Amino acid sequence: MKIGLYNLEPRIKNLALEKIRLYYQRLRDTVLDCSPLEANGFDKVYASSIFDWTSKKYILPNMITGGTGFDLVTTLPPEIEQVEPHLNFGFTTRGCIRNCPFCVVPKKEGVIRVVNDLLGR
User: Fold this and answer.
1) Which of 49, 47, 46 is nearest to 29 (CA)?
2) Predicted TM-score (pTM) of this structure
3) Which residue range forms the structural domain that includes residue 74?
4) How far apart are CA 110 and CA 23, in angstroms?
5) Closest CA to 44 of 2, 105, 90
6) Is residue 98 predicted with pLDDT exceeding 80?
7) pLDDT at 33 over 70
8) How many CB atoms lie within 10 A of CB 3?
9) Contact by Cβ (8 Å): 44, 61
10) Does 95 share its domain with 75?
11) Total structural domains in the chain?
């Protein structure tokens, strides 16, 4: 299978897309970054956005979309969520105890909790 990954904020590493990349690579599928112009050449295209202000005008109906930039409820399937890419995002905890009016972290991730240690799992 040929899988396309479309990062709407390409200057920022996207953890969800990296989990999807590694999951499909382990299945021996071909996984490539792509743009909307190339999307028809893939069996599946995953598009992800971190920020709600990023333009979504190039999203195509056949793309699988997710990320905080789209909504706060869509999640990866469990078999992809559990994948741990070898990237240093620095997460030892997730969530937040504050409720800043501009921030979606408490709504998306809940209260603060430990998710890793400094040595990794």
Assistant:
1) 46
2) 0.79
3) 2-86
4) 26
5) 2
6) no
7) yes
8) 21
9) no
10) no
11) 2
